[in-house]
Amino acid sequence: MHKEIKYKGMKKLLVIFFVMFPVCVNAFVDKDIAVMRVMNKDAGKVQELSVPVGQSVDFEKINITVRSCVQSDPFDAENYFAFIEVIEQENKKIFSNWMNRNEPGDKPLQHPDYDLWLVSCQ
Q: The pTM is what?
């Protein structure tokens, strides 16, 4: 009987885990607009851009496209993630990756003339 009680308790824990786990994994909210800051390093010029998901915007010699913008679970520490593609004038892709607002140095745009940061998703 003692082993049966342990088994029932373990079974309840497993059921709770498998019911709650998908909620924890998919705790992102899709947003429609990515707000970014872009800087021309030579001129020291900084501009804030709002780019709708699925659209592009030009900034001087680069074209910035946002493929996705999501917010972390609103009940968790606030964070934003965006999948961004950056193309130079010559149609040369210079960046295609996820950006994380809380860790801008994790996967930065590495370009001699421009810096790019994700500010938020709206």
A: 0.73
